[in-house]
Amino acid sequence: MFDSFRQTLRDLMDRATPPEERRAGLARMKQTLVTARLGLDDLRAGVATTRKRLDAEQRELETVRRRRGLAAGISDTETVALAEKYEKHHAERVDVYTRKLAAQEAELAIAERDVAEMAAELKSAMLGTTPAGGTLGADERAAATAAEEVADDSARVAEELDAMGRARARSERDAEAERRLAELKRRMGK
Description:
Elements: H1 2-13, H2 19-73, H3 77-127, H4 138-188
Helix pairs in contact: 1-2, 1-3, 2-3, 2-4
């Protein structure tokens, strides 16, 4: 995903790219960034889930160790043997979840860094600057501005469509209420 984003950025920054393609490229980059941010949310949820599982296993391990100690205190060898078995089981799981959590946190850190870089690259592309800090010509800046306006316009159109849908639903509910009221009045003879 990040490779295609960077390739689109390179294509976009190519001075020979027509404005229409530049706008389409910016739109693809925005969509990729949105998808990447959603992926970050999934990674964060995975880290949280693993952390909860690790905490639960650590509590279970502490409980088994406490029970083993209590059983050893009253010389209950059967309970001590059973507790040792479960202690080993929970200790292994704690070890696995600890390593898994470390790997997930490292993966999340890398992904967050990549998404931050993608956001900076997209912003520079939309402003008409190159990622290295150079600037583009007037045509490229105009195309970037036009792409930003297209993105803003599409957001406004989506908001307007949602508002129209809500207004239509409201008018349909009002019409249904009026119809029911008229029916009720007819039945009551008014």
